[in-house]
Amino acid sequence: QASVLTTKLLPPLLHTMLTFISLSIIFLLMRLLLFQIIDQEINPHVDKWEEEGMFPAHKIFKVLGNAGFLGVSKPVEYGGLGLDFSYSLAVAEELGNIDCGGIPMAIGVQSDMATPALARFGSDELKKEFLQPSIAGDLVACLGVSEVGAGSDVASIKTKAVRDGDEYVITGGKMWTTSGAQADWMCLLANTSEGLPHKNKSLICLPMNLPGVHVARKIDKIGMKSSDTAEVFFDDVRVPCKNVIGQEGMGFTYQMLQFQEERLWGVANILTMMERVIQETIGYTRQRKIFGLPVLYHQTVHFRLAELQTEVELLRALLHQATALYIRGNDVTKMASMAKLKAGRLARELGDSCLQYWGGMGFTSDVLVSRFYRDSRLMSIGAGADEVMLSIICKYMDTLPRK
């Protein structure tokens, strides 16, 4: 009986082992390739792009698209690799080796923030027109959700898409649009009816070259400088009704699902940069002396760095647990919100502590820690502010006041 049982179990077990080994080898090769791209195609130019306030998205995305990094978890039939979302997060962690926060953020918008709903709910026609070339790096995507009067409160957006025959006529505007000055298309959230705010919205694939689409300005920011951020207005823009992603009126729900991936991606991306800042701070404080001793050798310094490293590892464990549940089909809204909340607050704490140990040098623009200090501040604001994350967590804990 034992030999029969072994004979039956061994083939699937071997298949599982071989699959795991194959995927591990593939992922290792992918990480090496991505590190090479970062080292050769991106980091040598980061300082220049930071000064210019924009990086060449079409050029960089084409390089990444050719290597398969813009569709890691997207369907194979549209050019993706067909892997689960954990591989996207592994890529996000590796992108933390880029010497700024703006470029990884723009890559994340392209791969895991503007396209998940399209990949999951969009028609075959829309996927071929917008998803496939975005995965290939031929089109730059942006996400149009936030407005001047509606950021984290997504339900209160005012942009309208009014049906006129087989078209929508879109009026309104979007704010804080990452890659908005360069994008070829926008995943736009707009009100398509007068119903309840959670049931009257739709996601629409909007080509940015249509008449009536106006990129009003490229916004100057305190951080994330190499990523262009635009304010966009829509003046009676006509879009075919077939450009709606999935069902009309389901846009709010689809966007909330996209937010799960966006928030997990953001946490994964900032982990590596936090580790790099700690390591660079160790290196600098080992060389810099004060009162006859390296700064690092003062107990208050190396104890503080040990605490910060511990916090990073705790955040990583939370991220990996949430990801494991997510790829098994669970709703991880609460855990993703917890991870994002913790990541934003830890980034601020870590950036401030490490910059302090760099002394006057930390107050210059010449070192990674000062750039991280500026860039990482967005983590507590974008994709839902800290206060919104707390509200979501409270909702899932059932601690909010009952009406």
UniProtKB/TrEMBL annotation:
Keyword Aminoacyl-tRNA synthetase (UniProt): no
Pathway entry: Lipid metabolism; mitochondrial fatty acid beta-oxidation
Cofactor(s) in the UniProt record: FAD
Domain Acyl-CoA dehydrogenase/oxidase N-terminal: 36-138
Keywords in alphabetical order: FAD, Fatty acid metabolism, Flavoprotein, Lipid metabolism, Membrane, Oxidoreductase, Transit peptide, Transmembrane, Transmembrane helix
GO biological process annotation, one example: fatty acid beta-oxidation using acyl-CoA dehydrogenase
Substrates-to-products reaction catalysed: decanoyl-CoA + oxidized [electron-transfer flavoprotein] + H(+) = (2E)-decenoyl-CoA + reduced [electron-transfer flavoprotein]; dodecanoyl-CoA + oxidized [electron-transfer flavoprotein] + H(+) = (2E)-dodecenoyl-CoA + reduced [electron-transfer flavoprotein]; tetradecanoyl-CoA + oxidized [electron-transfer flavoprotein] + H(+) = (2E)-tetradecenoyl-CoA + reduced [electron-transfer flavoprotein]; octanoyl-CoA + oxidized [electron-transfer flavoprotein] + H(+) = (2E)-octenoyl-CoA + reduced [electron-transfer flavoprotein]
Protein name: Acyl-CoA dehydrogenase 6
Organism annotation: Denticeps clupeoides
Name of the gene encoding the protein in the UniProt record: zgc:85777
